[in-house]
Amino acid sequence: MLRQYELVERVLEYDPNADQAMLNRAYVYTVQKHGTQTRASGDPYFSHPVEVAGLMTDLKLDQETIVTALLHDTVEDTLATIEDIEKNFGTDVARLVDGVTKLSKIEQLPENDRAAENLRKFLLAMSEDIRVLLVKLGDRLHNMRTLHFIKSSEKRQRIARETMDIYAPLAERVGMYEYMREMQMLAFEQIEPEAYRTITQRLEQIRSEDGGQVDAIALDMKHALAEAGITTEVSGREKHPYSIWRKMAERHVSFEQVTDIMAFRIITEDVVDCYRALGVLHTTWQFLPGKFKDYISTPKTNGYKSLHTSLIYGKSMRVEVQIRTREMHRTNEFGLAAHWAYKQGNRPDGQVGWLRDLIEIVDASHDAEELLEHTRLAVYQDRIFAFTPKGALFQLPKGATPVDFAFAVHTDLGAQTVGAKINGRHMPLRTQLNNGDVVEIIKSAKAEPQMSWLGFVVTGKARASIRRAVRLKERAEIAEIGKKLFDEIALRVPAKIGKKAVREALKRLDMEEEEDLFYAVGAAKIEDRQIMEALVPGCTADLEDEPDWTRSGKALSIRGLTPGVGFQLASCCHPVPGDRIVGIRKAGEGVEVHAIDCPQLASGIDTDWLDLSWGKRSRGAVGQLRVTLYDRPGTLAEMATIFAQNHSNVTTLEQTQLDHPFTTYEVELEVQDLPHLTRILSALRASDAVAQAERV
Predict the structure, then answer these.
(1) Lowest mean pLDDT segment, chosen from 27-31, 569-573, 645-649
(2) What's the pLDDT at 608?
(3) Which residues, including other chains, have CB under 8 Å from residue 453's CB and lie 6 or more apart?
(4) pLDDT top residue among 154 and 621
(5) 432-462 burial code (b ≥16 CB/10 A, e <16)
(6) Cα–Cα dist 305/297, whole Å
């Protein structure tokens, strides 16, 4: 553990103007506050914040960050308060400590019960000042280094999984690869102990048998580059066990089949020498096509720059090579922290693009579980590059689609997407993008996000935006049904209801907007009696205490509402426009629409029934038919022809019975209304290919 004077000396080495008194005060404060507390290792608890502060000095961070590292656990684990921190160390340090504390509190909760509000506060604090994240990453790295002291296997697994899912990707996104690799290694050891032991043992075996082969290859590369007049530093190593494990899992291969387990790094003096070195390597050894990546001309979003290539050394040995300048190497290993300088008027922009996306995800996410899912997606590591027609570059996760691309460009563009061209060709929206694709988004001002998109989008921003749009539309349509029901309820009170009465009712019901009230009515979250009492207090005193009073007798129209959003069409009877319908209103579930003769209605459903109508010009639904064909060649094609001639699309077709010479199918198809479905049934019954056709 660093002693007090050693920590101060470390800071003064790179920042001679640092406030020694504040650093000394913070060191003493954390020792006093943590007192006799101990860690699982048996060490004094204050050794942890001191070691985290030491990690921050390795990154040469400013004194406020060092003090924050020393104090980051005092509010959570001692009697100290944020007010105490602000009084003793200033507003900036208090704000940073508060930001780090927010996420630490979340970690103590079960995953399904995490507090979304605390995570929101952490992400917002991080967006305002990235030092919150840097301290938290240092805190997590030191905790991972001492994880083996925790006795509970379950707790070790939970912490390791959280590190792998959230903190290692966050470290990668700010370019702190050194932190990322170590956290992945330590987490991998806990999550897959058998695989970790097996791979490390194999690597040790290779190391003992290779006879200095890594050094020999590095020396060969250095000589080849020196002969070309290029001054370089060349180093080689085996890949990390986790990197090998992930490659084995992705490619479904054994350890023996992973041929490129050796990686070499070449450090040059300038950018020109990077490309010259690349040329020498490619002319001296065979280059593996498809394995070259130029992150110098096109850096990663976290600022990472390097040339990556793969070569065949000797007859069959594959090796990976990274080529970069010394400055690139320093930035690549420690990313944002490598050039972080907090000086008055010269503060770097903490709101890098992906961080702005995270804040947008915070606003769009509905609950804690959804927020965590979207956040994991937003820090996903493996990336591809795609371009707009004007040449703007966007980085996306592997598996991204044009819809992900559209939301990455702008949320409004994603919401208005109706089609896409990839490299000039019209392609389905679910098409996965490849490196270098040029994507043109076709939009319409009348379009809106579709629920079906959630089946193929992969970015957190897209998923959060789609879910939010669908929720808003669902709320609006349920509120529209609720407005119609409210108007009916208002007719049953002994007074004329105006705007003033509604405003007073909202106050009594503790609601802010009329739409809140209408949504509560439509979603059956409030009873008729409560609404009547809020509108005219005392008016329900003489009414019988029954769950359902006589309504006006006028059917509610569902015209203009969207099936699956404002209401659900029951799958048991598949009502279509023209059928006589009723609605079943279940608390919190909205309205389910049934045909009046649906057998399920006779089962005594104990819920609120609504008299519904389709409204004029209502169009579009799914009809279900049971069709028995003669079992001979061409009959299925004839049935399909009948559907096509009647302008109906088949959504599902299932063979339910084969009883020679008959075959029975259940078909779901898109129809406009009841007359349309009737015409299709008539055409089927008139066909020689059809033995029987009926609506289900």
Answers:
(1) 569-573
(2) 66
(3) 403, 429, 462, 466
(4) 154
(5) bbeeebebbbebeeeeebeeebeebbbbbbb
(6) 8
Both tokens assigned to 299: 């850096």
Domain locations in the chain as residue ranges? 4-191, 203-338, 381-458, 469-535, 558-614, 621-695
pLDDT tens profile 583-640: 887 666 667 888 887 877 766 555 667 777 776 655 678 889 999 999 889 999 999 9
Q: Which residues contact 395 (CB under 8 A, 6 or more apart)?
A: 300, 301, 383, 384, 385
The predicted-structure confidence for 174-230, as pLDDT tens digits, reads as follows 778 889 889 999 999 999 999 899 988 888 887 777 667 788 889 999 999 999 999
Q: Which residue has the higher pLDDT, 257 or 195?
A: 195
CA distance 659 to 538: 67
Q: How far is CA 599 from CA 47, 133, 569, 573, in A?
A: 70, 59, 15, 8
Q: Distances from the Cα of 181 to the Cαs of 132, 170, 178, 643, in angstroms?
A: 20, 12, 5, 58
Assigned architecture for domain 381-458: Roll (3.10)
Helix 4-14 with 63-71: angle, nearest 10 deg = 150
Query: What CATH number was assigned to the domain covering residues 621-695?
Result: 3.30.70.260
Q: State pTM to two decimals.
A: 0.57
In terms of DSSP bridges, do strands 437-443 and 383-387 run parallel, antiparallel, or are they unpaired? Answer: parallel
pLDDT at 112: 45
Q: Which residues pair with 627 in a beta bridge?
A: 665, 693
Q: Which two tokens stand for residue 593?
A: 């629409």
What is d(CA 473, CA 686) in angstroms, rounded to the nearest whole number? 43
**Chain segment 42-62, per-residue pLDDT in tens:** 999 999 999 999 999 988 888
Which residues are catalytic, by number?
Answer: 76-77
Pick 203-338's CATH classification: 3.40.50.300, 1.10.287.3510, 3.40.50.720, 3.30.460.10.
3.30.460.10
Q: 266, 221 in Cβ contact below 8 A?
A: yes
pLDDT in tens, 94-149: 988 988 875 555 455 444 444 345 455 556 656 667 788 889 899 999 999 999 99
Which backbone phi and psi does 73 adopt, to 5 degrees? Answer: -105, 0
**613: which 2 tokens?**
């109508």
Enclosing H/E stretch for 232: strand 232-238
Nearest residue to 6 (alpha-carbon basis) of 48, 46, 45, 54: 54
| Of 583, 436, 604, 451, nearest in space to 524 by CA | 583
For 491-513, where are the alpha helices, taking DSSP H only?
A: 499-508
The domain 4-191 is placed in CATH, from the list 3.50.50.60, 3.40.50.150, 1.50.10.100, 1.10.3210.10, at 1.10.3210.10
Residue 373 has phi, psi (to 5 degrees) of: -60, -50
